[in-house]
Automatic annotation (TrEMBL):
This is Crotonobetainyl-CoA--carnitine CoA-transferase. It comes from the Bacteria.
Length: 245
């Protein structure tokens, strides 16, 4: 489904989605910390006309991907409980593949700090209604990210799996929106796993060390809107290389 989407898109190059899953990832913790610090320092909203156009394109692309997913027969059901619908990535993949149902953790009930509506362009209504609930654009992105980022190749929810999910999903968007996806996904993940709020004396404590915070007790990143340079996107993609030998 993803490969057909890429090959049929008028502005994509027809990248092999399967090949992307075989790339070698070097998880550069300097990149992760620097990205986390940049995200932490960024204002909540640094808006301009160029960024507005990128987000509008991002929303349109997400809606097209969402329609492809729904036309495949996958049932999307809103999940309004205060806890995530899946224990971990393996639970997500197994249950969706067995049932043909994906529960989307609604932005309105499960998100980071800050308002769930208002300033952020993805927190506006999408016009898509599932089981009597209108999804926000952020909910739409959650669905397509789960399907094409995690379920498709079985990528986990840890930093390596999230990086792989983002790298694969980038191939399904025009280059203009790559900085948006990196802010919305990679930068938030870097803050969650490597952010300054987790460090003790400038370093991240390992599991079992004093000051270590387990993932289930960490705060979600605040959703921010700010411009990101194409060079930062290139630095992220450079973490992935073809296997040799």
């Amino acid at each position: 489904m993803a490969q057909s989407y890429v090959e049929g898109h008028p502005r994509l190059t027809g990248t092999s989605i399967a090949d992307l899953s075989r790339l070698r990832l070097t998880l550069d913790e300097d990149f992760c910390r620097e990205t986390a610090d940049s995200f932490d320092r960024a204002p909540r909203l640094d808006w301009n006309d160029d960024l507005a156009q990128r987000y509008e394109l991002f929303k349109r692309e997400n809606l097209v991907q969402y329609r492809v997913i729904r036309e495949s027969g996958l049932d999307v059901r809103p999940w309004a409980e205060g806890r995530p619908p899946y224990r971990d990535s393996r639970d997500l993949v197994r249950r969706v593949r067995e049932s043909g149902v994906l529960h989307v953790f609604l932005t309105a009930t499960g998100h980071g700090p800050g308002p769930t509506t208002g300033f952020h362009p993805l927190r506006t209504p999408s016009g898509v209604v599932e089981h009597g609930v209108e999804l926000s654009h952020n909910d739409i992105f959650r669905v397509v990210h789960d399907v094409f980022g995690h379920i498709m190749h079985g990528n986990a929810f840890g930093p390596r799996g999230e990086f792989r999910a983002a790298r694969t999903h980038l191939a399904m968007y025009p280059e203009e929106v790559h900085p948006v996806l990196v802010v919305e996904q990679v930068a938030q993940i870097c803050w969650f796993f490597f952010g300054p709020h987790l460090r003790v004396d400038g370093r991240l404590p390992a599991k079992g060390e004093p000051g270590y915070t387990p993932p289930n007790r960490r705060p979600y990143a605040e959703q921010k809107v700010f411009p990101l340079s194409p060079s930062h996107v290139a630095r992220f993609t450079s973490l992935f290389t073809e296997e040799h030998g």
